[in-house]
Structure prediction request, 432 residues.
Amino acid sequence: MRAEVLSVGTELLLGHVIDTNAAYLASKLSELGIDLYFKTTVGDNRERLAQALRIARDRADLLLCTGGLGPTSDDITAAVIAEVFGEDLVLDVESVARIEAWLRQRGHPVLDSHRKQAQRPRAACSLPNLAGTAPGLLLDKEGAVVVALPGVPHEMRAMYEASVRPYLLSRRGAPAVILSRRLLFTGIGESLLEDRLRDLMEQANPTLAPLAGLGVVELRITAKAPDAETAGRQMDAVEAEIRARAGEHLVGVDAGSLEEIVAETLTARGLTVAVAESCTGGLVGEMLTRLPGSSAYMLLDVVAYSDEAKAGLLDVSEELLKAHGAVSAETAAAMAAGVRGRAGADLALSITGIAGPSGGTPEKPVGLVYIGVASRLGVTAERYLFGGDRAAVRSRAAMTALDLLRRTAVQLVLPVAQPPSAVRTGEGACAT
Prediction:
């Protein structure tokens, strides 16, 4: 069964309302093993809605519409469905009674516009609305099944669960499920990850799809199978191959955000952290403390933007700043060591860079960022060159710093015979 979701409402096109209904229906169709090939959004316009319905009818077996079933003049979904499928509109007597009873129980007057909601194509059946007034409808004609649901999310979900899901279960044929697994990667770009996994991405089932973010890449494995156990085995086999090729960059499977993974890592190991930020202006500290329970690991976050603040708050020597500049590996290392000493933390992060759009030079261009890490393992500082505007540079720097923090925290569980005394600097890979 091939499905299409058609969302109706000019407010969706204008961006005034986020279409959560389409995402909900997509997830529910996956649970039933029904392939969703298209999502379409159209405004409250009779001609364009009719065109969208005709296109969907020709390419899908199942069309799920949301929106346009209310009492106002721009609610035209039922009428246009009737027109496209050559049906007369009739008034559903049972729906009229339900609407009137619902309104009277709440002390609302019953208007003719309310009764309009009870209209349906003659060959369609009405779907009762358990959470509002507008009934849905289901029409099975010309090899296509059309289901119209209210646009109000809680009404739509209640109607789907009560009426649509049981119907689809009876019509879908052989049982099937479509399941997905999310793998989160850091320290590798989308293009390089795809290059390593190109042959896996060309297979039909399970499928692989990358999604790039700022500093992270999400890889989705999706399998279609007769049951969840079989789909799980299919995804296990693909995941094992992915780990063999890019496992050093994998940080989580069906996990939350990177900051949630970092928080879990720190908490599980009982580690504390301090942060010194310049160009990110407190962004790393905000990410580390946005989760409940962050007081268990977060001790200090210093935003030292000026050279004077770096010297006064983080004990970065003025001689070092003069010799190497604020944006340098040496300064990043000194900032990390300084904030760790001030807080008495197990490990510390520092960030200094040029976020732009101005301030860059040929030697130190916009996007240049140094990230320092200090722990009992020693002090390191790595160089990165991030692309994008100011917000992108800051976000990529923060995400990369969090991943360095996570990697260092994992290493801290290993015994160290003799911590290095010298500052080590390294060249970091660009995470774009």
About this structure: The longest helix spans residues 390-411. The chain has three domains: 2-171, 177-253, 258-427. The two ends are 39 Å apart (CA to CA).
